Amino acid sequence: MTPAAPGATKNGRSAIQLSPMEVPKASDVLANELRERILSGEYEEGTPLPPERELVVQTKMSRTTVREALRILEVQGLVRIKAGRAGGAFVQRPGGESMASSVALLIRGQQIRLAALLETREALEPFCARLAAKNRTTEDLKALDAANDAIVTAEGDLDAFLSANVDWHVAVAHASKNELLMGMMTALSRAIYAATENEGFVDETVRNTTVRAHKSITRAIRDRDPDAAVRRMTRHVHSYAEEVLAVDERVDITVPGED
């Protein structure tokens, strides 16, 4: 009797089993290829990519696949698509706003608690103030002063106060000249603004305290005194967090995106 071949069953069929295989979509493959070339610097910012029809010829992919790949890159902030006769896809580098948008989506998508947002700000913003005191420019000081003036003139207008407050905190982050901190603080400040857009959180005492704290921190940044900037910012964001969380126990309020 002839012995059965290795891997064969009694009926002659193969007993070999393969695991399911995931094959990437063609559009993802093309998007990955273009992404790497953009991020590596091979394609400089503002460089036009070949037209869709040319990409179809070069890649041997369908026009639908090419279009989907470009759309992926557009969502990721790596290309800018312009319509019209002189339009097309143009290379662009992701900036701080791209990071801020991504962090904002994470905050809303994960329904991050207001307490967690305030904790993160307490961890990051004093260091932003330190860097701002070291790296600030004349234009940065103008932005800080303008935001402080807007906070003072907001008076009873809650939206104007919160908007100017965000502008000041974002201006501190920009003065740090650290792109990652700029993106993080922009997203955090906007999320905290949206979560505290309630009269219960911001009374006259909080406003007056905020004005004094901002002016004191701005003075340290202007004087290029990083130690004072850290101390004052630490005290400010911690006190603000305590005030907000104390009110949060009494006011029915949530971070945007929560049900």
Residue ranges: pLDDT <50 for 5 or more in a row? Answer: 250-259
Broad structural category? mainly alpha
Q: CATH superfamily of the largest domain, please? A: GntR ligand-binding domain-like
Rg over CA atoms: 27 Å
Arithmetic mean pLDDT: 85
Q: What is the count of β-strands? A: 2
Total separate domains: 2
Helix and strand arrangement:
Blueprint lengths: L25 H14 L12 H8 L3 H13 L3 E4 L5 E4 L4 H14 L4 H22 L2 H17 L3 H19 L2 H17 L8 H19 L3 H23 L11
Antiparallel strand pairs: 1-2
Helix pairs in contact: 1-3, 4-8, 5-7, 5-8, 5-9, 5-10, 6-7, 6-9, 7-8, 9-10
Organism: Rhodococcoides kyotonense
Protein name: DNA-binding transcriptional regulator, FadR family
Keywords: DNA-binding, Transcription, Transcription regulation
Could you characterize the architecture of this molecule?
Keywords: DNA-binding, Transcription, Transcription regulation. One of its GO terms (molecular function) is DNA-binding transcription factor activity. This is DNA-binding transcriptional regulator, FadR family. The chain is built from 10 helices and 2 strands. The protein has 259 residues and is mostly helical. It has a two-stranded antiparallel sheet with strand order 1-2. The longest helix has 23 residues. It is elongated. It starts with 25 loop residues before the first helix and ends in an 11-residue tail after the last helix.
